[in-house]
Amino acid sequence: MLKQVLLLSLIISIPLVTLVLAAVYHFSPAYLNNSFVGGFPALLTAFSSLCAIYCVCLIVLAFFINDKNKTLHARHDALAQSHEDVARENKTLSSKVDLLSATREISLIITHEVDFQKILGKSLEIIAQMINSSFEGKVSDDKEEITIFLKDEVSGRLTPQAQRKGTAIVFEDELPAQSVDWRNVNESLEHSRLFFSADGEMLDFTIPLMADRDTVGVLKAKVPASAVASSEDYIKHLQDNLMELARVLALAVKTPMLYNRAITDGLTGLYTKRHLFTELPVYMEISRRHDSKLSFVMFDIDHFKKVNDTYGHLTGDVVLKGVSETLKQTLRATSTAYRYGGEEIAIILPLSSKEDARVFAERLRKKIESQNFVSDAGQKLKVTISLGVAEYSSAMTDFKELISQADTALYRAKQGGRNQSVVI
Predict the structure, then answer these.
(1) Residue 179 pLDDT more than 60?
(2) N or C: which end of the chain has fewer CB within 10 A?
(3) How far is it, in rounded angstroms, from Cα 14 to Cα 341?
(4) Contact at 8 Å (CB) between 139 and 223?
């Protein structure tokens, strides 16, 4: 702008100076004493007049060009702003697509998985991908930390179930206590609301996992502040995305909870009789196709009615739970146990002959025989069990035949004096 003013001033000053000089000479005595008109003064006057007209034209042209420049600058600014708006809208749409993709992937987990660890592990990976996409890959893998806490249905207490730190995922059994940050976690569960804090290095989002107005846990995500560049828009954007993912994650967590509740006996933690009727035919078909061994065991607690009558039903529940816990500790990873009814329990032993099953039955019987149980009143008592063992045969056309044989063996064990194993 200053250069334009100086140039304009120079253009104006040249004809003006010329005009002034011509006027001074025109009215000077030397000129007035001359009897003729013309010569150099006349040419000078004409030249200065033309320069003045030219200058006026230049001024008009300069104003016209300046006005056009202003218009062009305004259009340029408008286009630049429009470009920024489009870029911002594209980024918003891209973020929404990422969020929808993440929620869809977590929703698919609900459909295809019921195993807690698989659900939690895949969910942590999806959340981490969403965080990284939000910050255009600026998050440092070795600093990012995401933890899922779930509420125990009985005690109501939170326990850390899975944590993703960097690219490694660690589950409850292997999760070191010192690596878990409990800040705001219980408060988020209690008040069912989000807590956000920033300590200069890390941004901390603590979000309740709510499904159908039931808070089933807490999601805690810690992100390096350097990845956000102190932008409030980014923080708000990530916060909204995490809250949406927490809602979907809560459903993903609650679904297997409901499924496990449907197939698991509440008192013993064993599977239900209905689930046995679903799984035993499958095990028998696998055994038939692969020509592998399969055994089935049924047992009940000897004189359990007497335990209830003598010590009360609460003590009976303690005994039943204790026997079930001992059974779980004795089972192999491939074997499953079911509460068949009352104090009667069934066990499926894949890849086991009836001799293998007898060895297992005796080991379980001796463990329970040596165990002490405590009554509701603090009294110590002991119990024994009787067991019946049967092995699957390809001649069996129905799973109930295998159950019937094991039940017959159990009846013989009880008739033979109890606290023993009988094999058919």
Answers:
(1) yes
(2) N
(3) 116
(4) yes
Rounded CA gap, 212 and 22, in Å?
97
- Exposure of 270 in the CB half-sphere (CA atoms within 13 A): 30
DSSP 327-364: HHHHS-TT-EEEEEETTEEEEEEET--HHHHHHHHHHH
Look at residues 119, 222, 121, 221 and name the one whose alpha carbon lies nearest to residue 170.
Answer: 121
**Quick one: DSSP state of residue 35?**
S
Query: How far is residue 187's CA from residue 149's CA, in Å, rounded to a whole number?
Result: 13
417: left (phi over 0), alpha (psi -120 to 50) or beta: left
Check whether 112 has a pLDDT greater than 80: no
Please compute the mean of the pLDDT values over residues 143-168 and round it to a whole number.
84
Rounded to whole angstroms, how far apart are CA atoms 289 and 390? Answer: 19
Q: What's the pLDDT band for 76 if we cut at 50, 70, 90?
A: confident
Helix pair 39-112, 2-26: axis angle to 10 deg: 170
**pLDDT tens by residue, 263-282:** 888 889 899 999 999 999 99
String of b and e for 111-133 (b: at least 16 CB within 10 Å)?
eebbebeebbbbbbebbbebbbb
| Residues facing 385 on adjacent strands | 301
> What distance in Å separates the CA atoms of residue 243 and residue 73, rounded to the nearest whole number?
43
Alpha carbons 368 and 385: distance in angstroms, whole number: 7
Both structure tokens of 59? 């001024």
Distance CA 36, CA 47 (A): 19
Q: 156 or 15, which is more confident?
A: 156
pLDDT in tens, 372-399: 999 878 889 999 999 999 999 999 989 9
Please determine, for residue 225, whether its predicted confidence score (pLDDT) is greater than 70.
Answer: yes
- Active site (annotated) includes residue 105: no
List the one residue out of 191, 198, 252, 248 whose CA is nearest residue 221. Answer: 198
Q: Which of 113, 144, 145, 343 is catalytic?
A: 343
- Backbone torsion region of residue 39, taken as left when φ is above 0, otherwise alpha when ψ lies between -120 and 50, otherwise beta: left
Kindly state the DSSP code that residue 424 receives in the 8-state scheme: -
